[in-house]
Amino acid sequence: xxxxxxxxxxxxxxxxxxxxxxxxxxxxxxxxxxxxxxxxxxxxxxxxxxxxxxxxxxxxxxxxxxxxxxxxxxxxxxxxxxxxxxxxxxxxxxxxxxxxxxxxxxxxxxxxxxxxxxxxxxxxxxxxxxxxxxxxxxxxxxxxxxxxxxxxxxxxxxxxxxxxxxxxxxxxxxxxxxxxxxxxxxxxxxxxxxxxxxxxxxxxxxxxxxxxxxxxxxxxxxxxxxxxxxxxxxxxxxxxxxxxxxxxxxxxxxxxxxxxxxxxxxxxxxxxxxxxxxxxxxxxxxxxxxxxxxxxxxxxxxxxxxxxxxxxxxxxxxxxxxxxxxxxxxxxxxxxxxxxxxxxxxxxxxx
Length: 351
Prior knowledge:
Blueprint: H1 3-13, H2 17-28, E1 32-39, E2 44-47, E3 53-55, H3 64-71, E4 75-77, H4 88-91, E5 101-108, E6 111-119, H5 127-132, H6 137-181, H7 187-208, H8 215-222, E7 229-234, H9 238-248, E8 254-260, H10 263-272, E9 279-282, H11 291-299, E10 309-312, H12 317-322, E11 329-330, H13 337-348
Parallel strand pairs: 7-8, 7-9, 9-10, 10-11
Antiparallel strand pairs: 1-2, 1-6, 2-3, 4-5, 5-6
Helix pairs in contact: 1-2, 6-7
Pfam families: Response_reg (PF00072)
Protein name: BarA sensory histidine kinase (= VarS = GacS)
Organism: hydrothermal vent metagenome
């Protein structure tokens, strides 16, 4: 079986569950497929197509799916009825005529976020095929991470809005501070404070309202020039990516800015993009693969990517300290135009 071919097709269709069903059936010859998504609030797994619901409390060692869930390991059963863990109600609720079965738990941050079950594979499907099937693990993970990434974005946007309110509150407090400072400081000191305050305001405005709508015009203008630098921004928070992209887009030396919202997508772009990536802005906590894992892969001695400049954009101090050897530069969040400009100037010694 050509799992590389299946992987390539799934890469373009993993967001559509019906397409995933069809591609897996065509690629592996499997007759029955269940894709169970996890509902954390109700503590249950549900299949959107077959409308099967399995509550967590029933997932025990007395079923094949329960064993896979508890051990967090994929299972391939060649003769399902002879397996000691076979449970008709959980493993074959529609009492179908099935001989074999594969159960794959999808793990994210050490939790099972979904379960993929393939029943009644062709007789030619072997243990070797099961092992080779692991090449699809990262694609399977993307299927289940779509909703999680969206929910995390919503939480972050809400949190970001509250942070912006705090920033503007700080500005109003700054005005009061100037009034007090003016009674005990020289005019030069007051001017210095005002200048710093104005720079902060500019950065806040850029963060609150980056010129995202103008990106298309900037991209078109840049393609008319001879630009050589290709950039990848890898961060699972869409808002952060758009803000950083907006701040970078005015730089005339940049040819193209790619974006990735999870670690798997980032690696895929780094290794397979037609445009060689020169600079990688890299977050740490991302679905699929952590930033430090990506950085290790890029910087390894045997890697063809080791010349890529990696800029950390995480605020996780433990990561910054323990893995500082993996990163060339660091920019804290929230991003500021000044910090972005300084980093680019340091790298290329020009604006």
